[in-house]
Inverse folding.
C-alpha cells in the first residue's frame, strides 16, 4: 500500500502525488481532473512540452519548473523524459489567494535546480514509509520556490486584503478545525464576532469563494490525496473526508473533477 505517512494541519501544502517517472508518448494527454493542482517538475534527461492557457513550455533537463495551478491544457512527450515531479495545492487560504495571482511558469537553472535535486531524489519515499524530516524538507523546498515567485510580482494591491484577512482569521481557523463537521454559517461567523450575512459577503468578496465552497474544496483535496496516496476503499475515504457515503463522495467528486474516483486513482503519474 502506498500512503502519505504525515498529514499535518500545520503544513503549507497538501501533497497529492509525486515521485520519479520515465515519460514517453503514452504520457501525452489533454488536461483532466488530475491536473487541478500546482505542479513541480525537475527533468533529469530528455524533454517534453506543456501547453498552458497563456504559454507553451519546453521542459528541459537540469531545470526546475513551477507550473501555476489550473492552467494546463495539454502535455506531450515525443520521445522520452525522466523527471522528478510533485502535484500539490496550498493548505492556507491566504497562500492560495496569493498564488491565484501567479499566471506564468517559473524556471530555475543551476545552482537552484542542483540544490533541490538532493530533495527530489527522495520524492519516491514521500508516498511510502515517509520520514517526518523528509515531509518537512519537501514543504520547505516548495515554500522556498513560492517565496521566490511571489517576490517577482507586484502584490501591493493585495495588501488591502490583509486587514480583512485579520478580521476573518478566527472564522477561517474555526472552519479549518471543523471541516468534516460542515458547521453552520452562524457558528462560523460567531467565531469572528460577526453577523452571518456580513461574514459571508466579506469572505466571498475577498477570496472569490463562499465559506462552504472553501470547506468543500479542502475536503475534496483531502479526498484526492487519499485516492492517490492510499489504497483505502471509497467508503473509508468518504468517512475521512466528511461525506455521508461512498456514493455521495463519488457523485460530488465526479462533478467537480470531471472523472470518477476510480479513474482519478488510476492516474498516479505526472
Amino acid at each position: 500500500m502506498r500512503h502519505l505517512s504525515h498529514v499535518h494541519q500545520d503544513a503549507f501544502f497538501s501533497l497529492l502525488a509525486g515521485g520519479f517517472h520515465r515519460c514517453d508518448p503514452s504520457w501525452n494527454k489533454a488536461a483532466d481532473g488530475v491536473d487541478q493542482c500546482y505542479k513541480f517538475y525537475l527533468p533529469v534527461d530528455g524533454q517534453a512540452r506543456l501547453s498552458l492557457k497563456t504559454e507553451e513550455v519546453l521542459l528541459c533537463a537540469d531545470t526546475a519548473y513551477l507550473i501555476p495551478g489550473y492552467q494546463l491544457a495539454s502535455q506531450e512527450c515525443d520521445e522520452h523524459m525522466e523527471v522528478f515531479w510533485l502535484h500539490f495545492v496550498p493548505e492556507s487560504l491566504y497562500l492560495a489567494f496569493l498564488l491565484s495571482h501567479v499566471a506564468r511558469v517559473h524556471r530555475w537553472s543551476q545552482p537552484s535546480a542542483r540544490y533541490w535535486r538532493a530533495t527530489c531524489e527522495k520524492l519516491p519515499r514521500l508516498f511510502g514509509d515517509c520520514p517526518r524530516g523528509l515531509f518537512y524538507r519537501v514543504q520547505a523546498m516548495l515554500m522556498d520556490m513560492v517565496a521566490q515567485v511571489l517576490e517577482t510580482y507586484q502584490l501591493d494591491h493585495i495588501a488591502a486584503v490583509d486587514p480583512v484577512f485579520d478580521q476573518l482569521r478566527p472564522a477561517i481557523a474555526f472552519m479549518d478545525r471543523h471541516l468534516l463537521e460542515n458547521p453552520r454559517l452562524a457558528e462560523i461567523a460567531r467565531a469572528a464576532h460577526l453577523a452571518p450575512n456580513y461574514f459571508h459577503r466579506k469572505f466571498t468578496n475577498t477570496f472569490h469563494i463562499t465559506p462552504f465552497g472553501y470547506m468543500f474544496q479542502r475536503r475534496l483535496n483531502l479526498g484526492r490525496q487519499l485516492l492517490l496516496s492510499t489504497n483505502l476503499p471509497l467508503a473509508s475515504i468518504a468517512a475521512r473526508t466528511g461525506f455521508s457515503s461512498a456514493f455521495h463522495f463519488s457523485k460530488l467528486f465526479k462533478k467537480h473533477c470531471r472523472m470518477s474516483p476510480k479513474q482519478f486513482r488510476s492516474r498516479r503519474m505526472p
